[in-house]
Amino acid sequence: MGISVWGLDQADPFRTMPYPGTSWELQGKPACQPHQHLRNGTAKLMSLFHPATGEVRVKGVRSCTNAVLHPWLKERLRDILKTLPPPQLLLSSEENQATWKSWQEGLTVKVTLPEDLPPLRMLVVLENLTGHKSPELLLWMFARGIMVLYTPLGASWLNMTESMQRILKRRALEGHYPEKPEQIIEWLEAAARGWNRDPTPLEWGGHRAARRERVRLRRHALGGSGACTRRPIRRRHRTVLEKWQRANQLTH
Predict the structure, then answer these.
(1) Is the pTM of this model over 0.85?
(2) Contact criterion met (CB below 8 Å) for 45 and 188
(3) Least enclosed by CB within 10 Å: which of 27, 122, 142, 149?
(4) What are the residues facing 58 on neighbouring strands?
(5) CB–CB of 19/174 below 8 Å?
């Protein structure tokens, strides 16, 4: 439909603590981390992710209140809108209004849309939080052709930005011990810059989903408990039954 889709999310607070992970070390000399750590504060990561290209725009902060998030989000959205082509299909006022409302079909709670709307140019997926429903923010986005889509309560994983943040966290923090929140911010932003040099588009049911499915197929379920093994377990009761049947036949 020619609409750019982005996702917004704020990563959980990252603490100044040793993060488990793998690292390359000399044989017999593994990397050691302290069993105690100093609580010097936390850091958060504001992320705006474009799944179609894999591009991510981030900013590390100490706190992520509306006063911090909204100005940063508006600035990033302005930059993105400048790169988008103008809408090619010009619709009437009624058709344009119907296009906006089509993204609210099936919702029990719908965002009130203004009567005068510009052509739809972007969709932004957000978590269902009170701060993301600020009237001032929504009116600002609607005036620029941006429609908001909220993930259902308890289903924030539907926002692909969470997957992107897990990748950045693993690359930046695993196997390291940041002692200051400024280090966490610097490492996360550096990981995002490295990712953007050669980004990977994300899609539902892509290569990762196929790999997980192959792993599940290689496992053997045990009863109905949900437990599984990587190799089949020999069923001894069948062997005992076959021996008894063979002995019974020889006896008769």
Answers:
(1) no
(2) yes
(3) 27
(4) 47
(5) yes
Question: Which position has the token pair 């897990």?
Answer: 166
Q: What per-residue confidence (pLDDT) applies to 250?
A: 65
Q: Which residues pair with 123 in a beta bridge?
A: 5, 147
Across the strands, what pairs with 221?
228
Give CA–CA dist 97/91, Å, rounded: 9
Contact 23/31 with Cβ under 8 angstroms? Answer: yes
List pLDDT tens digits, range 187-207. 999 999 999 999 988 887 777
Type and span of the H or E element at 101: helix 93-101
Question: Which two three-digit tokens encode residue 84?
Answer: 């988008």
Domain range list for the chain: 4-197, 219-251
Instruction: Report the CATH fold assignment for 4-197.
Output: Nucleotidyltransferase; domain 5 (3.30.420)
Dihedral angle, C-alpha 113, 119, 125, 129, nearest 10 °: -30
Query: Tokens at residue 208, please?
Result: 């990762």
The dihedral formed by the CA atoms of 103, 105, 106 and 111, expressed in degrees to the nearest 10: 70
